[in-house]
Automatic annotation (TrEMBL):
Cofactor(s) recorded in Swiss-Prot or TrEMBL: NAD(+)
Domain NAD(P)-binding: residue ranges: 5-304
Top class in the EC scheme: lyase
InterPro entries, per the entry: dTDP_Gluc_deHydtase (IPR005888), NAD(P)-bd_dom (IPR016040), NAD(P)-bd_dom_sf (IPR036291)
Organism encoding this protein: Methanobrevibacter ruminantium (strain ATCC 35063 / DSM 1093 / JCM 13430 / OCM 146 / M1) (Methanobacterium ruminantium)
E.C. numbers: 4.2.1.46
Annotated CDD domains: dTDP_GD_SDR_e
UniProt cross-references to Pfam families, sorted A to Z: GDP_Man_Dehyd (PF16363)
Gene Ontology terms describing biological process: nucleotide-sugar metabolic process
GO molecular function: dTDP-glucose 4,6-dehydratase activity
Key words, A-Z: Lyase, NAD
Keyword Mitochondrion attached: no
Official protein name in the record: dTDP-glucose 4,6-dehydratase RfbB1
The UniProt record lists the keyword Thylakoid: no
Length: 335
């Protein structure tokens, strides 16, 4: 039986990935190792918690003893566990170095010790830095991370590459554009704007709102990771993106329209420090080599997603209480 360790599986993409895999491969076993930080939420996995092929281990990927035990029985590792919010990395970079780089290195050591079949590092297009109005990130674009978050992800990517080159560890790295979809923590653009709009609160938008991100539905990210895990050529990097470039302001206006709320809720706030202007992914390699094709268009995916948050306001309320609320008040009271 194939056994996969998914780290960070209680977060947004990891929880979607676990459900995707259990659904597609009923004979695979999945172990979810997650520290349950402020954004790790086991409720994201409620519908599969009784599945006999799924198990959860609460723990930190920096915990060498625990990681050793967990990795000793698995065939594959898919590493999602990370601090993932750029704004938080500007406030407090150190935890990003610890979780994202040291945590990855601890996993790599165990992966090497137990000679696992593949280590897949889930990375981001943000490691490439920022684009001007033209061009796309390819797998050979130099890494030019601009935020402490993206720098920590780039550091982890290089460490994964180094274990591949130095120790022949079978690795892949995926670099995906911005994800949207169900179960995203409401500090990120789309769920934050939906949540504020529903409460008739101001919608804070950085700078002129014209920063461009290349949006992909989380389901399509999961299907790409699945393909790379099974068919990706050892040692290779694969970019993942759906050619859906949108300005932040376009997304916010679309959300307001769908929720029938006025644009007067929009409030432009002081720009994020070091704010990257544009990301856009060239996904030719994964499309041509592995035959990946996204299922969602942005137009259908975003409407479905807005309605998911509308139908799951209980989930949103619970997630927003506590630590996140304090952080939100602190960040946005300064602007
Ligand atoms: P998330 O913040 O929703 O989830 C991260 C999960 O990791 C949480 O469950 C958290 O508890 C866990 N975690 C954090 N530090 C840990 C540690 N030290 N040990 C164990 N668990 C820990 O993030 P997400 O949006 O689901 O992103 C998942 C991964 O995908 C990240 O590596 C991120 O860099 C990458 N990624 C995200 C996007 C995006 O748009 N969200 C795009 C490309 C790549």
């Amino acid at each position: 039986m194939t056994k996969i360790l998914v780290t960070g599986g209680a977060g947004f993409i990891g929880s979607n990935f676990i459900k995707y895999m259990l659904d597609k491969y009923p004979d695979y076993e999945i172990v979810n190792l997650d520290a349950l930080t402020y954004c790790g939420n086991l409720e994201n996995l409620e519908d599969i918690e009784d599945n006999p092929n799924y198990s959860f281990v609460k723990g930190n990927i920096m915990d060498e003893g625990l990681v050793d035990v967990v990795v000793s029985s698995v065939d594959y590792i898919v590493n999602f566990a990370a601090e993932s919010h750029v704004d938080r990395s500007i406030e407090d970079p150190q935890i990003f170095i610890k979780s994202n780089i040291i945590g990855t290195q601890v996993l790599l050591d165990a992966a090497y010790k137990y000679q696992i079949k593949k280590f897949l590092q889930v990375s981001t297009d943000e490691v490439y830095g920022s684009l001007g109005p033209e061009g796309y990130f390819t797998e050979t674009t130099p890494l030019q991370a601009n935020s402490p978050y993206s720098a920590s992800k780039a550091g982890a990517d290089l460490m994964v590459r180094a274990y591949g080159e130095t120790f022949d560890l079978p690795i892949n790295i995926t670099r995906c554009s911005n994800n949207y979809g169900p179960y995203q923590f409401p500090e990120k653009l789309i769920p934050l704007m939906i949540s504020n709009a529903l409460e008739d609160k101001e919608l804070p938008i950085y700078g002129d709102g014209k920063n461009i991100r290349d949006w992909l539905h989380v389901y399509d990210h999961c299907s790409a990771i699945d393909l790379v895990l099974h068919k990706g050529k050892i040692g290779e990097v694969y970019n993942i993106g759906g050619h859906n470039e949108k300005q932040n302001i376009e997304i916010v206006k679309l959300i307001l329209k769908e929720l029938d709320k006025p644009e007067s809720l929009i409030k432009f706030v002081k720009d994020r420090l070091g704010h990257d202007r544009r990301y856009a992914i060239d996904s030719t390699k994964i499309t041509e080599e592995l035959g990946w094709k996204p299922k969602y268009t942005f137009e259908t995916g975003i409407v479905e997603t807005i309605h998911w948050y509308l139908d799951n306001q209980d989930w949103m309320e619970k997630v927003k209480s506590g630590e996140y609320q304090e952080y939100y008040e602190k960040m946005y009271s300064k602007k």
